[in-house]
Amino acid sequence: MLIALIAKDKTDALQTRLDNRPAHVDYLKSTGLVSQAGPLLDGDDMIGSLVILDVKDMAAAQDWVDNDPYAKAGLFESVELIPWKKVI
Fold first, then answer.
1. Which of 23, 65, 75, 77 is the most core-located residue (most Cβ within 10 A)?
2. Exposed, middle or buried, 7 (CB in 10 Å: 0-12/13-18/19+)?
3. Structural domains in the chain plus CATH codes
4. What pLDDT, in 10s, does the model give residues 14-50?
């Protein structure tokens, strides 16, 4: 099942994002569950993340989120996991 992970960063958390970005990108590449991913932007500033996960169920998506280096670093103000259907 496809799950859209929409995470918004805490205010003034850009340095936390930058400090943990290499580990986060490695995690994205290593799990084999990421269909698409990229930062949410406000102008040129990264303010969150959009990740499309291809997982067996919502529990697997939550487990993925819990182990993301960004989440472990306390970057996110909010995280939503929403079932998603690819049309195009």
1. 75
2. buried
3. 2-84 (3.30.70.1060)
4. 999 999 999 999 999 999 999 999 999 999 999 999 9
